[in-house]
Amino acid sequence: LSTGALVTVRGVAWSGDAGPVTSVEVSTDTGRTWKPAKLFRDQRTPFGWRQWEFTWTPPRAGYYTVISRARDASGDAQPLAQEWNPSGYGWNVAARIGISVSPAPPVPTAELPETVLIGEPAAYGRCRGCHGDDVIRQQRLTRGQWDREIDKMTGWGAQVGSEERPALLDFLEKHLRP
């Protein structure tokens, strides 16, 4: 980004059984100060999604950590640090992103291709449709645990055919073992 350029940060917040999302706050200074984001559609139901938006103009060149956190009707806010969760489900930490701001417009760079491992089965590529490669790689599960994960994902609609399953399990066991 360039200094002086208006930036619009957008997101979606969700709340559980503690009540609907009532606010979203955004920090552009690594959590030292917080400002309210604009919420869309008055969603007053538990488990409801709320779209939000926040506009900001970077004051000077530098690296900024922008953090967003939602608050529900009971007053609970997303934590800034997440407890370890080996499967990654129920992730509830405040979202953060790093933004570099330069005094001049940045030079466009070519998009890097996605890394593909030799012998990677097609089903693994479909796993990355929902899960980032980094999330998959951090799991470090045994073959039995990967088998249960595949059961869970196919139960949620993942497209892994029975004929593809052995090759996918072999790949995960070989490359992503504990």
What does this structure look like?
20% of the residues lie in helices and 25% in strands. It is an alpha+beta fold and 178 residues long. The strands form two sheets. The protein has a four-stranded antiparallel β-sheet, with no helix packed on it. The mean pLDDT is 80.
Question: Largest beta sheet, briefly?
Answer: 4 strands, antiparallel
* Average predicted confidence as pLDDT: 80
Distance between the termini: 40 Å
Overall geometry comes to: globular
Radius of gyration: 20 Å
Instruction: Please count the beta strands (DSSP E, at least 2 residues each).
Output: 7
Give the helix level as a range of percent: 10-25%
Q: Order of helices and strands, N to C? A: EEEEEEEHHHH
Largest sheet strand order: 3-2-6-7
The low-pLDDT segments are: none
